[in-house]
Amino acid sequence: MFRNLTPVVKALLLINVAMFVIASYLIPQLDSIFALYFIQSSRFMPTQFVTYMFMHANGWHLFSNMFGLFVFGPLLEQYLGPRKILILWMVCGIGSGLLYSGYNAFRISQLDNTIATFYDNPSPEKFSNFVKDNRHLFKPGVFDFVDEYSRDPENKELIQRAKENFMGIRDIQINIPMVGASGALFGILIAFAMFFPNTELLLLFPPMPVKAKYLILFYSIYTIYNVIINNPTDNVAHFAHLGGLIIGAGLVYYWKKSRTDFY
């Protein structure tokens, strides 16, 4: 099985597994250095646009990404060559990180507008709505404060506490890190579907064959759906997955128009 691994795929698998072991058991501080933080975070460093894709949240996160690379990567590397599959992996990984950061900037700007509206005209209703929209980030005791503030809306001390809650949630939001090679992997997936659309793959659940183009189409639709519904309790960076799909598709489209330079 492992004899069929191609050089770049094998190297990427080894690097990702090694980084997971080192970060999990030897140098746990690497998580806070290599993960990708929002550009306004004090922990942000430009190098994180590269390093984040070699970090993973847990063993299942690592396995799912590496399994996808293991299944789809070797044939793609044989077809494209080592240089191009590495370019595909890195460009999709870095590009999805950049796009996700842009998406985050949009979300934070919306949050800033909400905060500014409250600061201009504080009210228990605005604070209550904010708590409902972000309840997964608050401690249960916040609802007691909502009741207290509702009974005394002109209390300056309560208004100040409400403002501190707003800023506390903002601080949490800009310091949520992103890790994982999913953006890069989704670039591999879309490339595989575009180069080998009718290749049949055997699913595990349910155990049935399906063509690559239909499998990747399902993943694409599922990703777009999750981006649209934007479930606040979902800790998966679906927009980064979408970024990998878009960038990978664009890169493959460009390569298909320039078939003479394959190597």
From TrEMBL:
InterPro entries: CRIB_dom, Peptidase_S54_rhomboid_dom, Rhomboid-like_sf, Rhomboid_protease_S54. Residues 229-243 form the CRIB domain. It holds the Pfam family Rhomboid. It comes from Belliella calami. Its main location: membrane. SUPFAM superfamilies: Rhomboid-like. This is Rhomboid family intramembrane serine protease. Belongs to the peptidase S54 family.
